[in-house]
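Hi D.,

Good news: the full-assembly prediction came through. Inputs first.
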Amino acid sequence: GEDVEQSLFLSVREGDSSVINCTYTDSSSTYLYWYKQEPGAGLQLLTYIFSNMDMKQDQRLTVLLNKKDKHLSLRIADTQTGDSAIYFCAEGESSYKLIFGSGTRLLVRP
Amino acid sequence: GAGVSQSPSNKVTEKGKDVELRCDPISGHTALYWYRQSLGQGLEFLIYFQGNSAPDKSGLPSDRFSAERTGGSVSTLTIQRTQQEDSAVYLCASSLSAEHHTDTQYFGPGTRLTVL
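Then the structure:
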């Protein structure tokens, strides 16, 4: 079945760039998403990318998609302590059903 | 409302008891979703509603799990005869519709269920 995999943990220094990686298996996925979960809060959609794109930039966030390798990454420029959270990659199996990875915990050190 | 709300925020129950978890979606959102997040795991899709009907219940883990939605708004997820493996955070989300991949799902804060 469909599977989405992410590394579990990433630690960066404040001001550095963070790169969170994700691999997925369903080549028919139309959209791929990045969600952020802060402690005690629900998931917040950060950005998404359509599968016919290879890059999308939104302020400090850059999403790169390598469809051939089924690899998605999220780059956060000038990482701040407020960026510390769990980041989930998800693929859109259908217009309503999202398949999530297990999340990458980002820790930003002062 | 301003966002998706869920109640209770925490629920501790004894094995074998039934529990009901409630979700209030964003007003006007026709689609509603339930997910389960177990410790250290990603979100697992449980069920999806379009209006009051549930076109996809494929993610419900067993027949002890059921959900309903009344009036196209509030939804209740019921777990009967709870087991320890049911312990997880249950997340609800809603979206304007479910016709397009760009119909953003907005998530509630979740209900943390602990089965002793």
